[in-house]
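User: Could you go from structure to sequence for me? I need the amino acid at each position, not a summary. Structure tokens:
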């Protein structure tokens, strides 16, 4: 009769970090959902993008974005230091490669607030690691109300974003999951359940074959 392996002899299962993308038109509530997720899950790191747009009141350089010049942006893009990048409205945005690779290597998941163009690039370069969620506002009136409530953008910018929202939402079918943001609590719970299930995917659990072999005494 073969001895049962002791617990300490069993190879631990490690987890391969995943890239969780949240996209939506501006004002659909994505920023609030992201903040809530980060607050109560220490295993998620937020990807801080670079942008050439000026900071809005209250935005902190290095936390909300790294605010950079067009020259700096072109240098980063030219050096392949950006995992993806895109022009959104009249500005450039991109994801610095280094911090994402470090977080994934240390087993953390990385949360991205990027648009459909960036999501397409990540899908092309790293499909197996990507989990993408599109957040929709419940109604167009609610979208406009939320954009106005922020009161950070000029009337002209609000009007422009409203007209862009329809274009952005046309990309919903390129995403793995769709959440209609009726209320923040339910949307946060929905994202958590997606994350919980995706973390358990067989291919994200490294060392599973060894673990099972040992359980079987082989
Ligand atoms: P905002 O200027 O309102 O912060 O962002 C405008 C849009 O740019 C949002 O849809 C946001 O998701 C997107 N965005 C922010 N950072 C990035 C990025 O690094 N890459 C891409 N592709 N889009 C981004």
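Assistant: Here is the amino acid at each position, in order:
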């Amino acid at each position: 009769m073969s001895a049962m392996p002791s617990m300490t002899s069993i190879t631990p299962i490690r987890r391969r970090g995943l890239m969780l993308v949240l996209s939506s038109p501006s004002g659909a509530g994505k920023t609030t959902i992201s903040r809530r997720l980060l607050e109560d899950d220490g295993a998620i790191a937020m990807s801080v993008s670079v942008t050439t747009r000026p900071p809005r009141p209250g935005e902190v350089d290095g936390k909300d974005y790294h605010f950079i010049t067009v020259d700096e942006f072109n240098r980063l893009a030219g050096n392949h230091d950006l995992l993806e990048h895109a022009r959104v409205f009249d500005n450039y945005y991109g994801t610095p490669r280094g911090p994402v690779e470090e977080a994934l290597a240390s087993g953390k998941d990385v949360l991205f607030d990027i648009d459909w163009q960036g999501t397409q690039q990540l899908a092309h370069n790293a499909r197996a690691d990507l989990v993408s969620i599109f957040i929709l506002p419940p109604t167009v009136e609610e979208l406009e109300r939320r954009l106005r409530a922020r009161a950070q953008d000029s009337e002209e910018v609000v009007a422009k974003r409203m007209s862009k929202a329809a274009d952005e939402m046309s990309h919903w079918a390129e995403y793995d999951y769709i959440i209609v943001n009726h209320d923040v609590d339910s949307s946060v719970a929905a994202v958590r359940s997606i994350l919980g299930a995706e973390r358990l995917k067989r291919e994200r659990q490294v060392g599973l074959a060894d673990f099972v072999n040992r359980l079987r005494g082989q």
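One structural detail worth keeping in mind: The CA atoms of residues 58 and 64 lie 9 Å apart.
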